[in-house]
Amino acid sequence: MRALAALLLSLLLGVAAYAQAPSVTFVFVKIQDNVLPIERGSKYEDPLNAALGGARLGEVTGGGTMMNKDKSIAWVGVDVNLFNLEKGLPFLLAKLRELGAPPGSTVEYTVQGRKVEHSVHP
User: Fold this and answer.
1) Alpha-carbon dihedral of residues 96, 78, 30, 22, nearest 10 degrees?
2) SS3 82
3) Has residue 3 been placed in a domain?
4) Residue 41 to residues 8, 16, 30, 52, 87: CA-CA distances in angstroms?
5) Residue 76 lies in a domain
6) Residue range(s) defining the domain that contains residue 74
7) Can you give the pTM of this predicted structure?
8) How far is the C-alpha of 66 from the C-alpha of 106, rounded, in Å?
9) Can you give the CATH number for the domain in which 89 is found?
10) I want to staple 60 with a disulfide (CB 3.0 to 4.6 A). Which of 49, 74, 83, 90 is the partner?
11) Cα distance between residue 28 and residue 5, in whole Å
């Protein structure tokens, strides 16, 4: 009987913890830079991931490159999951500026079904 009560209690506590867990917001970072994929990783993805992870605000989940018709690089993208949008977004924007993201760079995400876009530079 005690084992059953302990199991039920742990299940209830687990459900309560899950209900209170912060929601993850996917943020697409569009950087107006024509760096090659390896440099994109070392210039943006790796330092962003380290900073976001160190602050427990998020993680980098991927990246990509948009090419022009002439095969030159138009811009690069970085995929980010923020664990707390309210705290993580200002942190992310400041870190992008610190890493040298050029003017014209943006972040895009969705809140309550509405697409939101912010410039990295105010």
Assistant:
1) -80
2) strand
3) no
4) 46, 38, 14, 15, 24
5) yes
6) 22-119
7) 0.81
8) 14
9) 3.30.70
10) 49
11) 45
